[in-house]
């Protein structure tokens, strides 16, 4: 365990080219961020906690598109001390700060996204539709807990699409898949969908459009995500019901216009 803890807090310095790529396209995939021992350990720990906390689900064929996309559990750092070590990793938080070019980051929240064998697509969307945050200095680390080939449904990015404002008002749904796909079809933003090697992690901004394919494999696609924000992030007045819910759930007690410094949003680096 000591070796894993040391690894989680060992600095990883990005190159100027990597930072420039993220600044231009608002996503990046980085290989060998976490070693195999660390990934295997957290696969076991997070899977056990997800199985413990998950509720009985409807059969896949009876769910709507959102329900078919993934099993979703939030803020597991509060449920398990081992998972807290991953979520509070200085190695990962430092990468987020480097990519966003900020002095430090605080936690917005974490979530496990487990896509069942036979699970459906995750429709095109932009995460920040749900976030009552005053700037775009927020980023998600997408951490597969296994190697993720194309048939398991890895993330697909529309590189640079953070420039597009059409579709930002859409929640994850059949409508967002159709409308955003049509918008992206008439632009020249390149779509990037690639397998993830073991230990490879992606980071993406709140406004870049992304989706994931169906899980056509026979195995659960297990992913842990951590959402970071600039440590000076302020709460903005919610613009929709999703942002209202996020305020009450992930930033309880924060005041509009003030820095989001609640017990659920600690500074990580």
From TrEMBL:
InterPro entries in the record: Phytyl_CoA_dOase-like
Entry GO MF terms: 2-oxoglutarate-dependent dioxygenase activity; iron ion binding
Domain of life where this protein originates: Bacteria
Cofactor(s) needed by this chain: Fe(2+)
Keywords: Dioxygenase, Oxidoreductase
Protein name listed in UniProt: Phytanoyl-CoA dioxygenase
């Amino acid at each position: 365990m000591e070796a894993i803890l040391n690894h989680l807090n060992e600095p990883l310095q990005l190159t100027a080219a990597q930072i420039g790529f993220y600044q231009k396209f608002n996503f990046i995939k980085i290989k060998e961020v976490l070693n195999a021992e660390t990934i295997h350990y957290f696969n076991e720990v997070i899977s056990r906690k997800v199985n413990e906390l998950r509720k009985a689900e409807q059969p896949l064929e009876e769910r709507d598109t959102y329900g078919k996309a993934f099993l979703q559990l939030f803020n597991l750092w509060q449920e398990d001390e081992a998972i807290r070590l991953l979520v509070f990793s200085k190695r990962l938080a430092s990468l987020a700060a480097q990519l966003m070019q900020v002095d430090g980051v605080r936690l917005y929240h974490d979530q496990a996204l487990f896509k069942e064998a036979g699970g459906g697509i995750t429709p095109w969307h932009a995460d920040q539709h749900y976030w009552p945050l005053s700037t775009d200095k927020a980023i998600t680390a997408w951490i597969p807990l296994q190697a993720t080939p194309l048939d398991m449904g890895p993330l697909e990015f529309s590189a640079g699409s953070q420039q597009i404002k059409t579709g930002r008002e859409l929640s994850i749904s059949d409508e967002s898949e159709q409308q955003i796909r049509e918008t992206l079809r008439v632009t020249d933003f390149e779509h990037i969908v690639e397998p993830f090697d073991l230990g490879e992690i992606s980071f993406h901004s709140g406004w870049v459009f992304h989706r994931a394919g169906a899980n056509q494999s026979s195995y659960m696609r297990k992913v842990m995500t951590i959402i970071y924000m600039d440590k000076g992030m302020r709460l903005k007045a919610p613009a929709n019901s999703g942002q209202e819910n996020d305020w009450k759930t992930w930033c309880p007690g924060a005041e509009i216009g003030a820095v989001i410094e609640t017990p659920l949003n600690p500074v990580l680096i």
